[in-house]
Automatic annotation (TrEMBL):
This is Lipoprotein. It comes from Scleromatobacter humisilvae. It comes from the Bacteria.
Length: 218
């Protein structure tokens, strides 16, 4: 008995290329490709993000920046002298040699009215971000780990806590009033989704107003 084996051929008028294209489309769809196999893939878009971590600018200007200008006792190799953090040879923006922190001594304070306006007015906030005071804020914030003073160079270097400090020991202990201010600033980042001028940081003052309040430390 002879076995008949049928063979499939494209019907007249249908080219082999069309058949192959149909097969390729079916295979792509089966793999999850879908759509037109000959078209370009869709654009890849990065998901948008909102908010970001930052420390409070009002507290920096009112409570932290003044520390950089104070005459402070410095103990180095058993010898105590006085100097400022922003002094020449330390962290002065022009002549300093002291690590990443840079301080512009002559930075003009931001007016209280502008500081308040920046919380709601983007143009005022943008203008402040172009000032020398903001450059000081940005530099100081850059040597911190938000929420973790003991991992922050701005806090542990002046105390020589498991890290060397070319300027010697500035604060005798973590109970030093200046160390407490730095600790408090780093420990209280602005709530997620709000910027550095947010009024949420006003609670860091008593009363809760940067213009009239005193700097909290606890």
């Amino acid at each position: 008995m002879k076995m008949l084996i049928s063979k499939m051929f494209p019907s007249r008028g249908v080219s082999a290329g069309v058949v192959q294209g149909a097969i390729a489309a079916a295979l792509l769809a089966g793999c999850g490709g879908g759509g037109d196999p000959l078209s370009n893939p869709g654009n890849v878009s990065n998901p948008s993000t909102t908010g970001g971590a930052t420390l409070a600018f009002p507290y920096f200007e009112k409570c932290i920046f003044p520390i950089f200008l104070k005459d402070l006792p410095i103990t180095q190799n058993g010898v105590t002298s006085t100097n400022t953090c922003a002094g020449a040879g330390c962290h002065d923006s022009n002549t300093g040699t002291g690590g990443a922190l840079r301080v512009i001594v002559a930075a003009t304070p931001v007016a209280d009215a502008d500081l308040a306006a920046a919380a709601t007015d983007s143009a005022t906030a943008t203008a402040i971000r172009a000032t020398d005071m903001y450059k000081n804020f940005y530099s100081a914030q850059g040597v911190t780990i938000f929420g973790s003073p003991l991992q922050s160079r701005l806090f542990d270097k002046p105390l020589v806590l498991n890290v060397l400090h070319g300027g010697g020991r500035i604060f005798a202990s973590q109970d030093d009033p200046n160390a407490k201010l730095i600790n408090y600033w780093i420990s209280h980042p602005v709530p997620k989704g709000q910027d550095e001028f947010s009024t949420s940081s006003y609670s860091m003052f008593t009363p809760a107003d940067p213009a009239t309040g005193t700097c909290n430390t606890q």
